[in-house]
Amino acid sequence: MRHYLFIIPALFFAAVYVQAADQNAPAAVSAAMEELFPDMDVSSIRESKIPGLYEVMSGTEVFYISADGQYLLQGDLFDLSQRRNLTEAQRASVRIDVLNNIPVSEYIEFAPENPEHVIYVFTDVSCGYCRRLHNDVPRLNRNGLAVRYLAFPRQGTGSSTYKQMVSVWCAEDPKAALTAAKQGQHIQPASCRNPVQDQFNLGRSLGVRGTPAIYMDDGREIPGYRPPEELLRLVNGEG
After folding, report:
1. What's the rounded Cα separation, in Å, for the pair 163 and 232?
2. Distances (CA, A) of 66 to 31, 74, 118, 140, 228
3. Which of these is catalytic: 95, 130, 136, 226?
4. 124 has catalytic annotation
5. How far apart are CA 56 and CA 73, in angstroms?
6. Catalytic residue chosen out of the listed positions 76, 127, 136, 148
7. Whole-model pTM?
8. Which of 15, 32, 48, 143 could form a disulfide with 55 if both were Cys (CB 3.0 to 4.6 A apart)?
């Protein structure tokens, strides 16, 4: 949650505001970012809604930097007239592009025949709230919601949960294996070429810190477990 920055950026805008944008501003911005963060992979630089302030994106991280490269701000930019978080909208756009490009073979999906909406869920088979969410999946499916699971063993590579999740993804029937694992049943050890490590790394790059971490089909994040009624309202834009 970054809402605590709602007021703080307003205090800094006077400092970073530039009356006339330098024609070489993008070069200055690039140079400043390279100097400050030489190992950062900058995906885009563009003018923000505030004159003289540029938006820099690295994955789902968003920075704002003055046209002369002197001032940098990390926080959320709000359009007060529309009551809209512009920064979060950018993050959501990046998230859904990344998630929608995951090959079908790499996630474990529980879906009705013609889903109306999709959620992506970073899950850990040892997580109590993940198990609770999994118990809700049949109800979510009946209401037109597909659930696409991605692996996020919270203890990281080498943990017993990581190895168990590799066995799930490598099982002959991954859906059945995932359900069994979440019910505390023994899973036959298995190994294969699998996406568990890549999905764990992806989750970390998206800012996942706990599970379940839920992303809607427009890229919005729903942190933590939500009861099915609430989750369905959020997905349908009613909450």
Report:
1. 32
2. 12, 12, 38, 46, 44
3. 130
4. yes
5. 10
6. 127
7. 0.78
8. 48
Our answer to whether residue 154 is catalytic in this structure is: yes
- Inter-residue contact 152 to 223 (CB < 8 Å): no
Annotated catalytic, 84? no
Torsions phi, psi for 236 (to 5 deg): -85, 10
Q: Identify whether 39 is a catalytic site residue.
A: no
Catalytic residue among 91, 148, 154, 226: 154
